[in-house]
């Protein structure tokens, strides 16, 4: 607390990002980053942009990037909004579409940034408990509310719901915006993008951080009908018109263009996920079926916190959430095959006693 703080800053409850320790060379499986480097096409574009042009502001509308993505996903560029990572897009969306009076609904085990935004913007929210098997109770979202947000697939559980189920939620909530956070959709989920033309209340949010190996470049985007996109643009231009710098704009264009690299790396991650899930299953772990680049696992006898600490001693970082219902689970990002073999070997050793 400081006497200089505004009431606002004194009242916020900030998000705590996953740790990024530098004391050793860790196998880093704790923040769902992609183990593979960005495409060389992306790196070359960034290098080629790191020149005198940096003295000038970037294009505030990211026209070329929007055109490239519009072309890629078959939408109009007016149906696309870009932000500095999808976290920023989500923050803007909370401001643009949710009001304080009626609660926004989101799952009780989900991305921990949602309650942070709700508190920051003084938006009331109601938590919808996941079912016992960690799937989303779709019908619970049919009640009166002031908007809805959920990740699909969900984080940190990795479970997903079908596009048909999302359509039911949209159908029952036509007066409010439904945000589907698809940060992990490229690892086997199905995008709700196909519903955009039919549902003016749908906003789909995606990111380049996971499936395009660009967590460090900070590029996220939203897809929706023009009136929603204009709402986001109004918020953005009330805060900072240049949320994407020249390097990010240039790199992101090439990330979309290098489709072959995108397909190859995400398929590799999916294959590794399935292999590691099988191995852990054989070791007696409960492995929640995942459509993401992470798995959510629990051991029958070794407590998750103990496993987390022992893995850290072995220089392997995973994510442990000290939170009701999931405090005996670990979230493990899918690394390269070599990294995951190290992880499996350490787990074998620790769980054997
Ligand atoms: N949504 C979910 C569900 C996430 O797990 C993350 C990553 N932590 C994000 C959004 C934000 O990703 P980024 O800001 O890197 O695009």
From TrEMBL:
<dbReference type="InterPro" id="IPR004839">
    <property type="entry name" value="Aminotransferase_I/II_large"/>
</dbReference>
<feature type="domain" description="Aminotransferase class I/classII large">
    <location>
        <begin position="25"/>
        <end position="347"/>
    </location>
</feature>
<feature type="modified residue" description="N6-(pyridoxal phosphate)lysine">
    <location>
        <position position="210"/>
    </location>
</feature>
<dbReference type="GO" id="GO:0004400">
    <property type="term" value="F:histidinol-phosphate transaminase activity"/>
</dbReference>
<keyword id="KW-0808">Transferase</keyword>
<comment type="similarity">
    <text>Belongs to the class-II pyridoxal-phosphate-dependent aminotransferase family. Histidinol-phosphate aminotransferase subfamily.</text>
</comment>
<dbReference type="InterPro" id="IPR050106">
    <property type="entry name" value="HistidinolP_aminotransfase"/>
</dbReference>
<keyword id="KW-0032">Aminotransferase</keyword>
<dbReference type="InterPro" id="IPR015424">
    <property type="entry name" value="PyrdxlP-dep_Trfase"/>
</dbReference>
<dbReference type="InterPro" id="IPR001917">
    <property type="entry name" value="Aminotrans_II_pyridoxalP_BS"/>
</dbReference>
<dbReference type="GO" id="GO:0000105">
    <property type="term" value="P:L-histidine biosynthetic process"/>
</dbReference>
<keyword id="KW-0028">Amino-acid biosynthesis</keyword>
<comment type="subunit">
    <text>Homodimer.</text>
</comment>
<dbReference type="Pfam" id="PF00155">
    <property type="entry name" value="Aminotran_1_2"/>
</dbReference>
<dbReference type="InterPro" id="IPR015422">
    <property type="entry name" value="PyrdxlP-dep_Trfase_small"/>
</dbReference>
<keyword id="KW-0368">Histidine biosynthesis</keyword>
<dbReference type="InterPro" id="IPR005861">
    <property type="entry name" value="HisP_aminotrans"/>
</dbReference>
<dbReference type="GO" id="GO:0030170">
    <property type="term" value="F:pyridoxal phosphate binding"/>
</dbReference>
<keyword id="KW-0663">Pyridoxal phosphate</keyword>
<protein>
    <recommendedName>
        <fullName>Histidinol-phosphate aminotransferase</fullName>
        <ecNumber>2.6.1.9</ecNumber>
    </recommendedName>
</protein>
<comment type="pathway">
    <text>Amino-acid biosynthesis; L-histidine biosynthesis; L-histidine from 5-phospho-alpha-D-ribose 1-diphosphate: step 7/9.</text>
</comment>
<dbReference type="InterPro" id="IPR015421">
    <property type="entry name" value="PyrdxlP-dep_Trfase_major"/>
</dbReference>
